[in-house]
Amino acid sequence: MKNQNTIVVSENPVSRFLFSDTRSGLIWLVIRLYVGYSWFTAGLGKVQSEVWTGKNAGTALEGFIKGALAKSQEGGDVTGWYASFLESTVLPNAKIFSFVVAYGELLVGLGLIVGLLTGIAAFFGAFMNVSFLFAGTLSTNPLLFILATWLVLAWKVAGWYGLDRWALPKLGTPWNKKKSI
Fold first, then answer.
1. Which residue of 54, 59, 85, 149 is 20 to 30 Å from 176, comparing CA positions?
2. What's the pLDDT at 73?
């Protein structure tokens, strides 16, 4: 039996076009490639660096964390709870986190470039952007966070011009041709 108190709000045409219509795929392709390239090149640089994944792995991340901890004391750019997390969890495990960051950036970039599991890749990219923002680093993080959030919202069509076009239906996410009304 249908609940009599249920109210269904129709999606507006702009949202429907951007987030559910494959014709918007070209817009998302441009955004996806830009964000993916940004992550891929950042990750590739880290993966090839001695201080991120080489014999001195963790050194660069330790420096980054110590800079963030200094920001938490000086001007309050880094909140206390996040500084505590960095100091108690990330800093003692800097070598492990260094590999996670480097390969995470590379994989997010690769996923976005080829359009495979676009929504998931964008989510993890946004998660890293927020982590860097919490650590007091602006750079391109706000822009990449916004674009990644939009890609998460557009997950159904953002990878249409990519591997998602074939992978998502196999994973149980169907696209149906809609008859014009």
1. 149
2. 81
